Amino acid sequence: MPEAPRTTEAPEVTGPVNDEWRATGERIDTLIAASAAGGVVARERSEELVRLVTDFYGAGLERLLDLVHEQGRLDDELLAALAADDLVASVLLVHGLHPYSVTTRVENALESVRPYLGSHGGDVELLGVTDEGVVRLRLLGSCDGCPSSSATLELAVQGAVEAAAPEITSIEVESAERNAAEAAGPLVPVDALFARLHDADPLNGAGGEDSGATWESVPDLLALEPGGVARLTAGGLPVVACRIGTDLFAFRDRCARCERPMEGATLARRLGGGSGDGVLRCAACRAHYDVRRAGACLDPEADGAHLDPLPLLADGASVSVAVPATHVVAT
Do 60 and 97 meet the contact criterion of CB atoms below 8 Å apart? Predict the structure, then answer.
């Protein structure tokens, strides 16, 4: 079966698999664990049964794809559709039949988070994927004026890569050497990129046993028009989001200067700014925030004020925002 060409129009980074099928997988695990009550032999037989059934249907799926390919109907459009469907893609991954290679899926995952990394003055490059399943990345650029903690970067990069390629074994990150153009701002702290997720609250920077984050689906943002601003709640956390061109950005819904919700906030281009420029203005105190610079306040008297940026993943079919675990409300 041929691999479909890499495309940013049908990326493989998708939202959570349908809850019903996720629950089915969890139920299978529960039943296998319960079989242990009958002893080691009973558990081994349960595991063997699941393995045999899985292999049987996997062989059928593989043959089905071969037949479609032999008929000349497994074209790029169909491959992209299979890869874009959460449930189908998950089943194909289990059987090693996903139409896109690990490298292609990781590349598309990184493409989906580049707008967010760009808002911090940075970028990421895929160096390669080893035969052992190790993804090697290089962080580029600087965080000039970026107030956000490295934990938010970790959420965006690692979350996207692991969602697209759950079979990888680890992620290794290195940074490009600082050059003269980057001297004005510190490089993205690579040593902390994958270490601070459970040590600091991405919003407040405070450590604690409740630290961490969860990805919350926010489908309403799919319909947000360029130049639009939306206020919503994700996992119990008030969020304000905006779209510049095709790029989506999300922040905690609280003005850094007046500490009020961003009700009535508007998005405009800065005077003399380029087409991709975006300034979010608080309707209450008229404070101005640079969207692409992680919400840094542009007012002369700002004294370092900034909005709290939130990692956001968008793949054209779904949108998710990373919310600190301390703010997630159980349902």
Answer: no
